[in-house]
Design goal:
Low-confidence stretches of chain A: 1-11
Largest interface: A-B, 69 and 69 residues
Number of strands of chain A: 18
Protein name (chains A, B): Homoserine dehydrogenase
CATH topology of the largest domain in chain A: Rossmann fold
CATH class of the largest domain in chain A: Alpha Beta
Number of helices of chain A: 15
Structural class of chain A: alpha/beta
Shape of chain A: elongated
Pfam family, one (chains A, B): Homoserine_dh
Strand content of chain A: 15-25%
Pathway (chains A, B): Amino-acid biosynthesis; L-threonine biosynthesis; L-threonine from L-aspartate: step 3/5; Amino-acid biosynthesis; L-methionine biosynthesis via de novo pathway; L-homoserine from L-aspartate: step 3/3
Keywords (chains A, B): Amino-acid biosynthesis, Methionine biosynthesis, NADP, Oxidoreductase, Sodium, Threonine biosynthesis
Oligomer: homodimer
CATH superfamily of the largest domain in chain A: NAD(P)-binding Rossmann-like Domain
Radius of gyration of chain A: 24 Å
EC number (chains A, B): 1.1.1.3
């Protein structure tokens, strides 16, 4: 056989590719469901037959079709030379990290939806995969079902990406959309999201921005080609956003979204997770409810955006299974990923230039001179329904300069939100 | 060397990959510009050095940097064994077809932006590429810089796609956006588009929907896995859309877009290019100006959308160069494409079910009984600024049934537009 005939992608004889799924929770059971539901078309697109040989879970599932292939001991999987691909849908860093590393070292490709693990140990795990000429794939880790990891690796290769900004968390986007549509306060919208299954009982990872932080770290690592440490990313959640903030946003034709954003500037790279006001010129403006979207700007492509279901059992499973297909097509060949182990040093955001929406106590007549002295000429925004305060938007300035100016307002400043238009 | 070490993607030694560009027009010169501008990052992502060895054009370009590598005879390129990849940015079917076929038969991968050629001869050219274990890639043929071909081939593989709907033509979207914003008539908006370089002097291919037709044929072939003949697709352009139509659309909160759409139903596959009304629940609603977007629905993924610059020198070149990178990464290995030579038989649209916006002469009082008798109960829509007529939206019905009913209205029907909500 010549190397060409030996290529996986040109194989005419269908082979069996054996998969083990770690964790039979929401995403794991979704993966089993998708592979079963779309069995024929998936096998056709793979060129081989995908067979789920094992499902690992500590629990039993009496009566469930996976009962017969359920195992409780990871060693059964890692020691079985017939297993080609491991799907890790356990979440969390431990024991997912150990299982993933063992699987890769045993020559099995791993496909995961685990953003915590990719953000914290992705560099090491990708290196093992490259050394072993197998793959560590994580399309589902950012944006659920939205294809974004593979486009960054394989489609946007002609560009130098200089900005990536995403609505990366469905829970917070649902809450903010709800607050906008109903005029409700954060706490009420959160409770409703919890009751509708769009927010967890312990919602901290979502509402404090930690989830979006890991995702923008992963996306930025791929966009700029160097490892971005999620712990270096300035992160603010949406817990301080009020119904009044949203009223002002509506008045000025803006929407408030939780944005994970990073950019390449003359001074270096910045990244942050922050609530931000965007206007209708941004394609992210119309992304509502549990939908997610990722905006990318390339130096030759210009603007692009990828939109879809950011979470949910089947959309997330769709992305994991697409990785399984890709891993099966490249069983013993590493797919190049644009993410080097070299760390990208993020600049401190104090040097980043932004505009700010600011709410202050008092009346325009009584306060505008003081505001003008501190911030220069601004256009005051008053809402008849919100007496005793007004708002304005600053010109673009360094974060550090804004902080110094804001300090002068002391307790008169009722809130501030970054403005991205 | 083992096959694994022989893999292009794991090659550590950088090689020279020679490229020849056919046609130094807008896109061709963009390709040269992008490869030069982003030289370092492109080579890093390729793993090899991309070198433009030839540019083919009948014209001379004295003083242009390509002067030294300009050739007038295609044989120079096809007979040079050092040329690995041919970029075809000539447009049109001839001689692009002959050059592409010769290049592929000579073992050179071809990357193209030529939608006419892909729609008319893509099946044959892809088959030659597969037989030769090289690649015929055409990311730039649909949606300009928007990554959509590669996502369909490599990312949406877990799904059975049941709908694909795109705003696929920048010229018509610019014209419709202009008409919406200014209240202008089609002819005036067209002249303005021509003056601003957004429409050609001979705009027929755009405004009559032929361009969108080829694009939806290509996308549908990939989405459903079988060749869709563009000549089978019912195609209507935007020349009959008036300022009054747009006034009505605004009144009911809808936007009119030229849509290329295809879907899989219980009865079979349908495809058409048609102006259509969409409402804000569609992510395509906010896609304005020269931007394009492609909405895809998968049976497990749900809704997804890909948005970006649908035309323009650099965005289109960005997509072509991304193909060059992919071709270089897979120099002697065919990338699986989900497009079989088997033809997909489209159902006649007479059986397709749609809703219709209809404008009729007369007053609501004088006409509603007749309308109700023909179409059943409908909600009349009157605009004070448009006396002597009114409009309504039908319930969903077969195209053939609508045609029969519309015939009863005879000359009283002033127009009809399909409604996709």
């Amino acid at each position: 056989m010549t190397p060409v005939e030996n290529s996986d992608e040109s194989e005419d004889n269908e082979q069996m590719v054996n998969v083990a799924v770690l964790g039979y929770g929401t995403v794991g059971s979704g993966v089993v469901e998708v592979i079963n539901t779309n069995h024929d078309s998936i096998n056709k697109k793979t060129g081989d037959e995908i067979n789920i040989k094992y499902v690992l879970d500590l629990r039993d599932f009496p009566g469930d079709p996976v009962e017969k292939i359920l195992v409780h001991d990871f060693n059964t999987i890692v020691n079985d030379p017939e297993v080609d691909i491991v799907v890790e849908t356990m979440g969390g860093v431990h024991p997912a990290y150990d299982f993933t590393k063992q699987a890769l070292l045993a020559g099995k490709s791993v496909c995961t939806s685990n953003k915590e693990l990719v953000a914290s140990h992705g560099t090491e795990l990708m290196q093992i995969a490259e050394d072993k000429q197998i793959n560590y794939l994580f399309e589902a880790s950012c944006g659920g079902g939205i294809p974004i990891i593979r486009p960054l690796n394989s489609s946007l290769t002609a560009d130098e990406i200089d900005q990536i900004t995403g609505i990366l968390n469905g829970t917070t986007n649902y809450i903010l959309t709800k607050m906008t549509r109903d005029g409700s306060e954060f706490e009420d919208a959160l409770v409703e999201a919890q009751n509708n299954g769009y927010a967890e009982r312990n919602p901290e990872a979502d509402i404090e921005g930690h989830d979006a932080c890991r995702k923008i770290a992963i996306l930025s690592s791929l966009a700029y080609g160097h490892h971005v440490n999620f712990e270096d990313i300035h992160t603010e959640g949406i817990t301080k956003i009020t119904a009044t903030d949203i009223k002002y946003a509506q008045e000025i034709g803006a929407a408030i979204k939780l944005l994970g954003t990073s950019c390449k500037t003359e001074n270096g790279f910045y990244a942050m997770v922050t609530p931000g006001m965007i206007d209708p010129t941004s394609p992210l403006y119309s992304v509502n409810g549990v939908f997610n979207a990722i905006f990318v700007h390339g130096n030759v492509l210009g603007d692009a955006m990828f939109y879809g279901s950011g979470a949910g059992k089947l959309p997330t499973a769709s992305a994991v299974v697409a990785d399984v297909v890709d891993a099966a097509r490249h069983l013993h060949r590493n797919i190049m990923q644009n993410w080097s182990s070299h760390s990208l040093e993020l600049k401190d955001i104090s040097e980043m230039e932004n505009r700010f929406f600011v709410r202050v106590k008092g009346t325009v007549a009584g306060k505008i001179d003081e505001i003008t002295e501190i911030f220069g000429r601004v256009e005051p925004i008053s809402l008849p329904s919100v007496p005793g305060e007004f708002a304005f938007i600053t010109k673009s300035m360094k974060e550090a300069d804004f902080a110094a100016k804001a300090e002068k307002l002391a307790d008169d400043m009722l809130g501030r939100i970054r403005v991205f238009f």
